[in-house]
Design brief:
- This protein has 264 residues and is an alpha/beta fold.
- The protein has a single domain, classed as Rossmann fold, CATH 3.40.50.
- 47% of the residues lie in helices and 14% in strands.
- It contains eight helices and seven strands.
- The chain has a seven-stranded parallel β-sheet, with helices on both faces.
- Strand 2, helix 2 and strand 3 form a beta-alpha-beta unit.
- The longest helix has 29 residues.
């Protein structure tokens, strides 16, 4: 059992096939939660669910496109039916994509897609997930995995930054709306984690800025007071806190997990 005890709780994690989402699912399982995984990547989603089940908890999965409301509602139906109590106790929304590169290179189709996934997807999951928690009158914990990019502009990924800024504002709005029903909504803002998404950012920097990937990476490292990149484990730890009773009076907040790079 992990530091926290979520035994008897059912958690849903979107974007859980790999990276940050998968680590969150694993750590929730370590703490005793039954976990329902949702992702659009079929093969790796099944593999992730099997890995989480190896923690000795109940696990299931849905192949879900968060930008499609019907797909999200189907996933929520399946997760609710899966839950022994008939309700979802923890909802972590991690699904997202990036369009990196120059602002001027992104096509309208790319911008529309990132908006569909990162903004409409967030709207679909948070709105209809919290609606079910309110209807069940059982309270709940909702955590949005956002980004420090939602607080500050970054070069070579402006469209992504804008979607993350929208996420922070919407999470705060939902938090205020559902607080009286015992549902807490918070956000975690990861800093720099060497995932597939960051590999794409570095590749684009090499292509568009005339620097090597190592030079671009080291530039970011120099701006972090702790002097290191963050890890998926760092982010998952913050999520566990927001899902626990220790954060019962915390809602509408966004926590940076970025080694002190941004002090807000």
């Amino acid at each position: 059992m992990g530091v926290f005890d979520f035994s008897g709780k059912t958690a849903v994690v979107t974007g859980a096939a790999r990276g940050i989402g998968k680590e969150i699912a694993l750590q929730l399982a370590d703490c005793g939660a039954d976990v329902w995984i949702a992702d659009v990547l079929e093969d790796v989603t099944k593999q992730a669910a099997e890995e989480v089940a190896g923690k000795g908890v109940k696990t299931g999965y849905s192949i879900t496109d968060v930008s499609d409301l019907a797909s999200v509602e189907k996933m929520l139906d399946e997760a609710t039916a899966f839950a022994p109590s008939g309700q979802i106790d923890i909802l972590v929304h991690c699904a997202g994509i990036i369009v990196s590169g120059s602002l001027f290179d992104a096509t309208p189709e790319q911008v529309r897609r990132i908006t569909d996934v990162n903004v409409m997807g967030m709207f679909n999951v948070l709105t209809y997930g919290t609606k079910r928690m309110v209807k069940n009158n059982g309270g709940g914990r909702v955590v949005l995995i956002d980004s420090v990019a939602g607080r500050h502009g970054f070069r070579v990924q402006g469209h992504y930054n804008a979607t993350k800024a929208a996420g922070l504002n919407y999470a705060q709005s939902v938090a205020v709306e559902v607080a009286r029903f015992g549902v807490n909504v918070n956000a975690v803002c990861p800093g720099i984690i060497r995932t597939q998404m960051w590999d794409r950012i570095l590749e684009d920097a090499e292509k568009n800025l005339g620097v090597t990937q190592d030079e671009e990476w080291n530039k970011y490292m120099e701006e972090i007071p702790q002097g290191r990149a963050q890890t998926v484990e760092d982010v998952a730890g913050a999520v566990l806190f927001f899902c626990s009773e220790l954060s019962s009076a915390v809602t509408g907040q966004a926590l940076n997990v970025d080694g002190g790079r941004y002090l807000n």
